[in-house]
Structure formats: structure tokens, C-alpha cells
Specification:
Layout: H1 2-8, H2 42-45, H3 51-69
């Protein structure tokens, strides 16, 4: 019985009032904080450690795509 009593004791400070805590909804019904939630497939998600690394990779891809789709300047198409 000593172990069960010890498990119930915690180190929560007395100034924390648990009755005033606000519980946020979890899952897709939760409110967004200014951004759109994008779900990655598991095989893709395992390659990225955090959301910032996903954004960095996508920004790089966007920059490369823009550079490769720009219209050629005059004279760039002429060869020889």
C-alpha cells in the first residue's frame, strides 16, 4: 500500500489552480492559429524532423521551379 500512496503524491506547486485550466480541443476540430494544417503522408513525414524543415524544403523547391520556368532573355535561345 505504501507504493500506491506514493504514486498519488505529486510535486505540483500549491499556486497552480487546476480548476482554472482551459482544455483545448484536440484533432481536426481544434481552432487554427492563423495557419492551414497540411497532413503529410507517413513516408514523407519521417524525413522531416519539424515543420520548419518542411517549409525550408518547399521554399527551396519553389525557388528552383521559378528559376527553371523563367522566360529566356533575348539571345539566349540562339546558338552557333
Amino acid at each position: 500500500m505504501k507504493k500506491a500512496k506514493k504514486d498519488l503524491e505529486d510535486e505540483l506547486r500549491p499556486e497552480y489552480d487546476l480548476e482554472k485550466l482551459v482544455v483545448r480541443r484536440l484533432g481536426p476540430a481544434r481552432k487554427s492559429f492563423g495557419g492551414q494544417v497540411i497532413r503529410l503522408e507517413p513516408d514523407v513525414a519521417e524525413l522531416f524532423p519539424d515543420p520548419e524543415s518542411v517549409n525550408q524544403a518547399l521554399r527551396f523547391l519553389i525557388r528552383i521551379a521559378k528559376e527553371n520556368t523563367r522566360t529566356p532573355a533575348r539571345g539566349e535561345l540562339r546558338r552557333g
